[in-house]
Write a structure and sequence with these properties.
Two copies of one chain form a homodimer. The first copy, chain A, contains six helices and three strands; from the N terminus they run H-H-E-H-H-E-E-H-H. Chain A is an alpha+beta fold.
DNA sequence: ATAATATTTCAAGAATCGTTGAAATGAAAG
DNA sequence: CTTTCATTTCAACGATTCTTGAAATATTAT
């Protein structure tokens, strides 16, 4: 991943509501969760949740799929993992000092 | 680390120039590098580099110290590591799926 | 076709961020 | 104490992001 792309992904994570969405979707597991329930869980209005979900989907950090009337969202683990790898390996050169700091 | 703080740190990384700074400082190692040389390495004007360095220092992702006329900067590995841990453990619940995606 | 449900889109305004070049600050040398 | 060097600060502007509530869209059921 190149810096410009990583910067966009970090920007997508630079919001507490969106981090709550990620956490909520990780807990929801592979079945995902629909937009309305996500909004309730993170304590946001439908339109605010939709705005944040769109930002995460645009960054491909979550995947969106329609199931009947609902739109369900799931975490895109390879994408999140790619960002972690960028930070650890590309940006920080695989630094052992850094890895020790996150117990890796 | 709480979500609000992590969001601020992700925001500090949400810029290609600032990611270049981090990479440059990791390569520079424990001795750090002064502001002028950082500016040259990342191809930014002194004032732009100063702006980005201030953002990183404000987030405590880098540490600033005066050495004679120069201000030298170093990466704050525990802080960067804390953010990686937040993402892997707190936000993503230590998900094994995610860890596989970044070869951990 | 009409109604009900789930979600997104839109407009408007506030807030924050990024860039530029000029001026100001801090530290050291002559 | 004046000059020089290194860096930051500032003002101004444009660009982007966030929030709110109302309106629009898509899907399903009657």
């Amino acid at each position: 991943m190149i810096e410009a792309e990583a910067a966009i992904l970090f920007g997508a994570l630079a919001n507490a509501d969106r981090l709550k969405v990620i956490r909520t979707l990780v807990e929801a597991g592979p079945d995902g969760m629909n937009a309305g329930e996500i909004a309730q869980r993170i304590g946001a209005s439908p339109s605010r949740a939709s705005f944040h979900l769109a930002a995460l989907a645009e960054a491909k950090l979550v995947i969106k799929e329609r199931r009947s009337r609902s739109l369900i969202y799931r975490v895109n683990f390879p994408r999140v993992g790619g960002l972690v790898s960028f930070l650890l390996e590309d940006c920080c050169n695989g630094s052992p000092s850094l890895k020790k700091c996150c117990n890796l």
